[in-house]
Backbone:
């Protein structure tokens, strides 16, 4: 049976996104401003950006940092932010040790998140040039190399795993059916 159709309310009640793109001229100006900074100065700006809450971050700065021109520079500095956050985050007056530890952990987590974003931005830049980045994990690269070097054996193992998955699913189905049949009998 089909669900009853409802009439849309009168007026313009469509849902609109609150996301707005920043002004391209402002982004270009911010990119130029960041391009003139030394690595230490840019690292301080990047640390301030990472330390800010998501709601407090300036979209223009975010677009500039994640731009093709600055992505590599930011990617080189992010590991230092994660390793040595004390270098970039000054201690707050009268901050308890536990509060500082939490703030540093939060900063590291945000820096890791930004590193992932920058990695994906860089992968997109490389992909536009017609290339793919290598997989970041050694196990994934090794698995791919084994598949390339021994395709017959790799496909044989894949088929074995698929058959094993099907057998496990069939066994679970049989057990479930047996439980349902046992519970149905009074």
Residues:
């Amino acid at each position: 049976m089909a669900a009853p159709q409802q009439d849309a309310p009168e007026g313009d009640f469509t849902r609109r996104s609150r996301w707005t793109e920043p002004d391209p001229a402002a982004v270009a100006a911010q990119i130029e401003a960041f391009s003139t900074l030394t690595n230490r100065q840019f690292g301080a700006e990047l640390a301030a950006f990472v330390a800010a809450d998501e709601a407090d971050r300036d979209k223009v700065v975010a677009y500039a940092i994640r731009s093709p021109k600055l992505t590599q520079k930011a990617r080189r500095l992010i590991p230092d932010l994660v390793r040595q956050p004390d270098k970039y985050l000054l201690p707050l007056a009268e901050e308890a040790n536990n509060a500082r530890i939490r703030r540093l952990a939060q900063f590291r987590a945000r820096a890791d998140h930004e590193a992932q974003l920058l990695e994906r931005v860089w992968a997109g830049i490389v992909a536009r040039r017609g290339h793919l980045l290598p997989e970041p994990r050694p196990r994934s690269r090794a698995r791919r190399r084994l598949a390339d070097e021994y395709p017959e054996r790799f496909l044989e193992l894949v088929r074995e795993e698929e058959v094993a998955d099907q057998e496990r699913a069939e066994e679970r189905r049989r057990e479930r059916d047996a439980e349902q049949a046992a519970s149905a009998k009074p």
User: Anything to note?
Assistant: The mean pLDDT is 86. The two ends are 33 Å apart (CA to CA). DSSP finds eight helices and no strands in the chain. Residues 151-184 form the longest helix (34 residues).
